[in-house]
Structure formats: C-alpha cells, structure tokens
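User: quick one - fold this with zinc ion bound?
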Amino acid sequence: MYDWITALPKAELHLHLEGSLEPELLFALAERNKIALPWNDVEALRGAYAFNNLQEFLDLYYQGADVLRSEQDFYDLTWAYLLKCQAQNVVHTEPFFDPQTHTDRCIPFEVVLRGIKQALVDGEKQLGITHGLILSFLRHLPEEAAFDTLKQAMPFRDAFIAVGLDSSEQGHPPSKFQRVFAKARSEGLLTVAHAGEEGPPEYIWQALDLLKIERIDHGVRAIEDERLMQRIIDEQIPLTVCPLSNIKLRVFDDMRQHNILQMLERGVKVTVNSDDPAYFGGYVNENFAALHDSLGMTREQAQRLAQNSLDARLS
Ligand code: ADE
Ligand code: ZN
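Assistant: Sure. Structure tokens for the protein plus zinc ion:
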C-alpha cells in the first residue's frame, strides 16, 4: 500500500457491515454455529466472487450473512472491520447495517444491534475511531416491512444517526419509501439513500426531493443529467462513491472509465469508500490506490477526496 494514502486521515461513509464479512471469518462463524456451507473452502468461496450486476452480488451477500447468528458474531464482524479502519487510518466511520436481512431469519433486532453497537463503542474507546451507525432498509421489500423495522428500532433510537436505503435498485424507486423516510425524519433521524448506482438519474432526484437525503450513496449516474449535476454542485451534496464496487458490479467496464475524478474536478463533493470490501477486493486505501494506478489520481486530489469525507460526516 502507498504510505502517502495511509497517511491521510479519512472517514468512511459507505460501508455495509455485512459486506465486510471476509471468507475466513465466514467459515469460522459457520463452524461456530454448525452451519453447512455449499463451498468446500475459503478459496472456493472467493472464486464465487464474480458478478455481472448488483443482483448477482446481492444473492451471494445475503447467503453469506446467514452465518451471523449471535450477538458475539455481530461483534466479531464489526470488530474485524474496525481493525481494518485502524490499519488504514480511517478515523471515523458511518457504517450501514441491514436489520431485515437478519430479522427475516428470526434473529432478534436487539441481538444484531447490541453486537454491532458494543463493538463500535469499544472501537471508539480502544482504537479512537468515532462512528455514526446507519440503519438501512431493504428496498426490494415492501414499505410496510420498513415501517415494522423502524418500529423495532425506536426503543434504541439513540444508537443511530440516520436511516438509509439499499439492495436491488432497479424497479424499486425512492418514491416507494417516501412515507417511512418522513416518519424517520419526524423521529429526528437523518436520511441517506443508494441512488444512481444502477438506477437512472430520476432516482437521484427522487431521493433528494422525496426522501430529503443528506448524501447520495453512489450517485455516479448523476453525470447523465446536467441539471442534476448543477444542483449537486450548487448545494454541495456529498456522493459516497465506491470505485472497486463499481467495477466488480460492472457499473463501469474498466476503472479507466470511472468518472469520480471528473466529478471531483467539476466541484462535486465526492468521497471514496469501499461498500462491501470483503467481496470487492479492498478497503478504502485499496480504492484510493486503484484511482492512482488507473486514473492517475494525484496526491493533491487524494487529499481533497479525504478532506471531503471528513467534511461530509453526519456525526
Ligand atoms: N447492499 C450491499 N451493497 C450494496 C450496493 N452496492 N448496492 C445496493 N445495496 C447493497
Ligand atoms: Zn452500498
């Protein structure tokens, strides 16, 4: 890894905790919980990490998450991620978790939350890494299910800073979740949403106007709509961009076609993030390194990207 990338203090603003489940830990948790896996070993599982689109990835990601059963499992998952943050000089993180992925398997909401939150609190005390946790709704499920999840979360209201929206984007526009986001805002929660990863610029407009989001997760397709670009620049709405994810999920064919530096130079508040690092081949610093190697990102641009991440924190 480039020392000058590690030396930059950074915030990570787009990270799915379930997507930080490395194959080694996945196998260890399967053994601990006596779960049979369809892969013979870690190498066979890694070999399955080849995707043509977001949905192919999500199918494997939800399957992988099935090994997470106990409070200790969620603690271990989160702690392993925080150790990566420490090694990479990520000083603040605002991770997502998907409660419905677990409650739909009959894992109680509080089991998931307690494990994650305890690790984050310990990370703050022992590693000096600050955090703000984001509860993300699965958009392929009905809005009614998101309302149920929000209700389950409310006794733990102080554990979160925001709600988000993730999973299968195409065919599940932000408008589907307008009411539950309004309810979350009325409880004092901030809002973010995945938009413009695979979905059209229209979904970004909806996320801004209907969900009143503070940040756009991904948002790379904003570049197809000049009026939207102007708004994002004028209002300095941050984009949490995930370069390695975009290549692995074929949003761009090749890193040399990625638009993040073009956006940066136009004055968009873009940030660099890892999304699902265990599945996409790297954490934040590997994402920075890929921008250097493939797009010629300069040190000065890296500094601006890192500063953007610190400026775009919600907490
Ligand atoms: N869940 C985990 N990673 C995701 C991504 N990149 N897009 C949508 N949902 C996700
Ligand atoms: Zn994501």
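One thing worth noting: The chain has one domain: 3-311.
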